[in-house]
Amino acid sequence: MSRIGKKPIPVPSGVQVAVKGHTVTTKGPKGELSWRFPDAMTIEVDSGAGQIVVGRKGDASSVRALHGLTRALIANMVTGVSKGYEKKLEIYGTGYGCQVKGGQFLLNCGYMGRGVDAQGKPKEAQFVIDIPKGLSVTVEVPTARGESEPARFTVTGADKQLIGQFTSELRLIRPPEPYKGKGLRFQGEHVRRKQGKAFASGAS
């Protein structure tokens, strides 16, 4: 049996878990999540012991591989609705910055040609990204100053997978470049730096 899959998932107080058909739903203080698990898996909710037990219907290699994965994903759902998840990002580059306005994330990261809107007014940001339902973005530092004081923001929510996808897509807009480190990066991410070209001058 999978070492991970056989471990019961503890259900904290305040979290409700329901299984209907092949769909498991978790509900807690941070929200509600649902997921359709594979047909080869079984899920039992032991309310008395306050835990979830994930089992499997066979021992084929493909089924064994799903066992640990299913357990891990459901454990993430329980943690998400009870405590939530967050990812912190930083924006390096003088004048780079961000803000949240009306359910949208506004990002400036050094690209030229902001353009104008339908009324002919200058656009507020180079990129306007809709924040997915279930996620929230909090801006701690709206504008970067120099190369050592980045803009900072945090993405929070109950769905770990959605947070990872959204923040990865944001980072792809302006990945950190290797010379000055300008761009978006996850907090604590190490960016391997390159030395710029050196031009030697000599007498002709």
Quick structural summary:
The protein folds into 2 domains: about 10-80, Ribosomal protein L6 (Outer Surface Protein A, domain 3, Alpha-Beta Complex), CATH 3.90.930.12; about 85-185, Alpha-Beta Complex (Outer Surface Protein A, domain 3), CATH 3.90.930.12.
Topology, please?
Layout: E1 9-10, E2 16-20, E3 23-28, E4 31-36, E5 41-46, E6 51-56, H1 61-82, E7 85-92, E8 97-101, E9 104-108, E10 127-130, E11 135-141, E12 151-157, H2 160-173, E13 183-186
Antiparallel strand pairs: 1-6, 2-3, 3-4, 5-6, 7-12, 7-13, 8-9, 9-10, 11-12
Summary tags:
2 domains; 35% strand; 204 residues; four-stranded antiparallel beta sheet; elongated; three-stranded antiparallel beta sheet; Outer Surface Protein A, domain 3; single chain; 2 helices; 18% helix
How would you characterize the overall build of this protein?
The chain has 204 residues and is an alpha+beta fold. The protein folds into two domains: 9-82, Outer Surface Protein A, domain 3; 85-186, Ribosomal protein L6 (Outer Surface Protein A, domain 3, Alpha-Beta Complex), CATH 3.90.930. The chain has two helices and 13 strands. It has helices at residues 61-82, 160-173, and strands at 9-10, 16-20, 23-28, 31-36, 41-46, 51-56, 85-92, 97-101, 104-108, 127-130, 135-141, 151-157, 183-186. A four-stranded antiparallel sheet has the order 11-12-7-13. It is elongated, with a radius of gyration of 23 Å. The termini are far apart. The mean pLDDT is 89.
